[in-house]
Model the fold of this input.
Amino acid sequence: MKNKNNKPEWVPENASDEHFTSFVMKGVDSVHDGLGGDTAMDFSFRNLKKRKTLSLDDYKNGVLNCDINILARAITLIESNVHIDMAQSLIKEILPNTGKSLRIGITGVPGAGKSTFIEAFGSYLVGLGKKVAVLAVDPSSTLSGGSILGDKTRMENLSRLENAFIRPSPSGGALGGVARKSRETMLLCEAAGYEIILIETVGVGQSEVTVRSMSDFFLLIQLAAQGDDLQGIKKGVIELADGILVNKCDGNMVEKSMMKVAELRGVFHYIQSPTEGWTPFCDSCSALENKGIDNAWNLICGFFDNVKNSGVFDERRHLQRQEWFKSVLSEEIFRKFYSNEKVKFLYEQLLHEIKNSDTPVTLAVQRLLKESEK
Ligand SMILES: Nc1nc2c(ncn2[C@@H]2O[C@H](COP(=O)(O)OP(=O)(O)O)[C@@H](O)[C@H]2O)c(=O)[nH]1
Ligand SMILES: [Mg+2]
Done:
């Protein structure tokens, strides 16, 4: 894996070896970690080396035909900041085939049961004959080292189903560009024919707003044991939600969960719905025991009927494209700015200078901006 000569062709020359682990691996039946026995050989570079370089047409046809190996490689292409022209040509080509899915964002504190819910809910939807894609958005993955293992193991059943596609968040956010990459990944999945896209927020903070701004419906998974709903960040998240499910309503938590549901329903009277003409719902479920999953789907269908009839659905998509434009623009400005070698050098120097308060901070910023314009 760490062999320099065997990195994918898009890896920059000076990149650290650690963060580039882009493999496409079929679901493994044998052992729990998917690496035991003979299957471990599938990971070897001998196999990767044989992969043929894909042309734009190969990517396009592969994605449109829902060839999941090519879809996964297309996502890798989008996630890398190299071959940006090729990646953007691909997006342009597939754009007419996008936009037809239901985009469902799912948030909640770590441990609330998001992944478990997605496993149960996704499997249920596949059972209804739907094609389901699962994506994760994790702006903090640079710090946490990504979440691939955690999510992979909890979605074992779903990942075995033919009509489900799971794409964990990229390992290491070192290359940045979460707003662009997550949306373009979503477009690729839509072009491949996935009808329902489930987007999990991973990590703490930040990702809620990104995911809200790319989903039609935003679901909050809550726990009965969670307190202080009206305070601080949690109130902020409740205000973004189109529906709340109190999860882990099983065992000795049933009564407490029902109390929580009643409490949250009360809370909705005092906060404004994020979606015009829609009153958010609150109900309970047990993702682990597969209870309340069909009910959740019925409630969500009610939402889509409502917003599609009222025109709020289309309006939201239009506004989201503008938001998307703005966030990709800021990401790109950021990226361009910091990839300038002169800026990088001066930045380090200024960081040092301002420590001693000899140089005013604003002046340091002005110097840096001037340097970038040279
Ligand atoms: N009792 C119970 N445990 C659950 C339920 N859903 C998830 N869990 C457990 O809660 C833990 C965290 O779940 P996970 O899906 O990884 O949470 P996430 O961090 O929000 O994605 C795991 O140990 C799950 O088995 C549920 O409905 N009932
Ligand atoms: Mg999770």
In short: The beta strands are 102-107, 132-137, 164-167, 196-201, 217-223, 243-247, 281-284. Residues 50 and 87 are 22 Å apart (CA to CA).
